[in-house]
Amino acid sequence: MKLALGTVQFGLDYGISNRQAQTSLAEARSIVDRGLDVGLDLLDTAPAYGVSEAVLGEILADRTPRIVTKTPQFPGRRIEREDGRLLRKSLLRSLERLRQDQVYGLLVHTADDLLKPGGERLYATMVDLREEGLVQRLGVSVYTHEQLDRVRARHEIQVVQVPVNVFDQRLLHSGALDSLSRSGVEVHARSAFLQGALLMDGEALPSCFSKYRDHVAEYHAFISDRGWSPVQAALGFVLALPQVDRVVCGVNNLDQWQELIEVTTQSIDSNELRRFSLDDETTLDPSKWENP
User: Is 11 exposed, middle or buried (0-12, 13-18, 19+ CB in 10 A)?
Assistant: First the structure.
């Protein structure tokens, strides 16, 4: 199954289009159970996602799907030996909360941590954890082509998590996704809905979209003309990309999850949506939105 389950909503209120509270344990259990029933084999979490890891541990019991978690963030200007020890302790805590003996992937949550002076200490610790059988694959979460290139020039990466959606096709146009695919790097796409922005009309979007009001209106008119729902268009676009191995999506409830599952049985021509790409980092990176 190409669809993977992101679990930030299990531990935090998340997303500009989210009008609900953090997903309850009972609802999270229903979501995970439904996913496993239809072939879900990858769940994405992180220590930074509140109680998400503990919720997954409670739900999964003795089941062992592939789980990707992440490193803590390191605020210092350089990486010290103590940071390597902190990374190890963080993973061991994650495994304890998840009630797992091993995770499929360990990603550096903030790619710039690997690029700081001493960043090789973090990578060396990750390699040790892999050799000890606590992690299968090492990777990184990135935002830009430039960031990705710098990380790959220094470290061997097996999994990368990147933003890809109808409006944010920068890594597609730059050839980065093709390069990753050719190199055998597993690509996990996130932000398929641009934190919900692709599901909203122009009036409800953050102010940074105001200069693209006509663009957004044209996009919604186009998908409506094709008979595609906003969810079908946004998710279908990323699912159709051959360079992408998994599309990581989070949901707040079982109805939303069922809608995503149904979209995986449909298909659209992603080439039809190529013309809606933007190249404006302040609009494409939710962390730069001033008033979502």
Answer: buried
